[in-house]
């Protein structure tokens, strides 16, 4: 990688998103699933503590897919004109 001059462009952005979203997933999992005693008992009895980790995975899947990102940008730009 050092010989090639590093990573640039889309590869760099995808790698950054993967690292950030995976870190967010681990952090939410560690807090919500790993520390259930800080939440009320009625929430612990349900499986609601697993839900906060899902948006991090969804954000990565959405942002790493160039077609979905491009479509979203085009819709926003088209709405302004």
Primary descriptors:
81 residues; mainly alpha; elongated
Briefly say what this structure is.
The protein is an all-alpha fold and 81 residues long. The protein contains four helices and no strands.
Structural description of this entry:
The relative contact order is 0.11. The chain is elongated. It is built from four helices and no strands. With 81 residues, it is mostly helical. The protein has one domain. Helix 1 packs antiparallel against helix 3.
List the secondary-structure elements in sequence, H or E. Answer: HHHH
Number of strands: 0
The first-to-last residue Cα distance is: 42 Å
**In what range is the share of β-strand residues?**
under 5%
User: Looking at the structure, what is the overall shape?
Assistant: elongated
What is the average of the pLDDT values? 76
In this structure, how is the largest beta sheet organized?
none
In angstroms, what is the radius of gyration?
A: 18 Å
**Helix percent band:** 55-70%
The total count of helices amounts to: 4
How many domains make up the 3D coordinates?
Answer: 1
Low-confidence stretches: none
């Amino acid at each position: 990688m050092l010989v090639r001059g590093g990573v640039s462009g889309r590869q760099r952005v995808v790698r950054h998103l993967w690292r950030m979203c995976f870190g967010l997933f681990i952090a939410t999992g560690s807090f919500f699933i790993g520390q259930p005693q800080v939440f009320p008992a009625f929430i612990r009895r349900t499986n609601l503590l697993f839900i906060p980790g899902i948006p991090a995975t969804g954000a990565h899947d959405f942002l790493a897919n160039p077609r979905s990102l491009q479509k979203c940008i085009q819709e926003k730009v088209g709405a302004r004109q």
